[in-house]
Amino acid sequence: MRVRTAWLAGLGVVVLLASVGCESAPRDATPLSQWIRQDPASWQVTEGGATHTSRTLASQPAPASPEAPTAPLDGADDYVREALKYNPGIRAAEHKVSRLLERVPQARSLDDPMLMVAPIGEMAQTAAGQVGTMTSLSQKLVLPGKLDARGQVAYQEAAMAVQELAAMRLAVTADTRRAYWAYYFAVRAIEVTNQSRALLSQFRQIAEAKYKAGTASQQDVLRASVELSNLDNELITLRQRQTTAVAMLNSLLDQPVTASLPEPKAVSLNSISLSLDQLLADAAEANPALQRLREKIEGDRQRLRLARLQRVPDLTLSLNYNFVDDAGLAKMTRNGDDQWWIGFSVNVPIWFEKLAAAEREARQGIFESASDLSNEQNRISFRVQDAWVKMDTQQRLVVLFRNVIIPQARQTVEVSDTGYRAGRIDFLTLVDNWRKLLNFQLLYEQSLSTLEQNFAELQQAVGRDLHRGPGPATPPPATQPDGTAPAPPRGELKPDTTEASTAPATSLTPALDAASDPNHDAPAPDGGPMER
Fold first, then answer.
1. Backbone angles phi, psi at 303, to 5 degrees
2. Measured between alpha carbons, how far is 173 from 48 in angstroms, rounded to an integer?
3. What is the pLDDT of residues 9-36, one digit of tens each?
């Protein structure tokens, strides 16, 4: 009777624990909208630096934390640092890694034991008495190799998520740099256009004075007015591009899209000297997309190992106990003693076609992943080579615009202005030369911005940060095309804080000086060609 009492007590504890484990939280069956309204503090996300709700896409800045940066954002590197810290996509990828790692101990654990209780029914009649309740407790045991293979499959999924996290960090870094340099170009283009507009306003004043003096036609004044209106139209477009770039940066920083950002300061060319062969070798080793596929191949190999182990039977051990009443068929032998016994069972893997199909599936998965790896290697190689060539091209264009085209265009505008004042050329020629100078200045700023965006694309394709390299830079000419002394080189990409250079004696006005200098009176280095 003591054994029966202990067994019933243990059974009651198991049933109690099962009932407690099945109890659900009150909100599990509640619709999400009601759950959010009932307990908003449990779902609001503030880890990224802002508090978000499902009722609106707007967000309010979270209170400043002790570790929040106090220095203003200054340069692409600062924006990248903040994006890596607060971007919610990166946080999601980190949580995915943590989530998949929790699958490893689950995969390596045995299945839950099975408890069977049969309290009702036509029970057996024995000489010791009638069976009242039948119980059984069983546990399935598998080979340690199967548990290890299941754990390795789960671990490889987590390893793939780690590489996805690395790829997400690279993508956020590249997107942030691209958005920053788009913002940089929009700000610089607006500044250049405004300065060029001031120069055109001076030309219109000259045309009006000549028209009043009877030495020029009204057409000159009207042409200048049309060009000024056209510039106003271009400024509207540039401000739209600036707003878009700011919104993109804010979204990457997990800030409200309307949050204000400091305007980027002018920078000069920082030459890049990188070897394409070395970049391709680095990409083959460091690119997380390739690393992810390698982890996937290893996971497929473990799935094949697990599929082969399925041919080995699993053992199930069981402990059986029957409660016997005092009433039995034989009056002389009935004593109410309970029955118990230990047994075992095995599954019989005889469906060989199913087992063979599982092995073939796993083997085809390896071939699929290997082909994906080769395809991704080709794609990454193209991305690296394409970004490298584009970067090389933009660097040469920046040097050409800065050292040759813009100084020559500036001299042309000065000569045209002098000729128009003297009546030797018409106003249309002056405006045409002025327009070419403005376009060249915008192309310079665009090439500088595109160069940095291509460099960001190259870093993403390679899979790591790149040093620009100490390659030889193209030596500056003895004199610039406009007759001024060459600007001293600068070795790093930093905000332009140098003092204005001396304008040539033939400069027309301060507005022309500012409009014709691509760095706005900032000395800039010569860019060297990239190694081939």
1. -65, -35
2. 16
3. 455 545 544 544 444 444 455 665 565 5
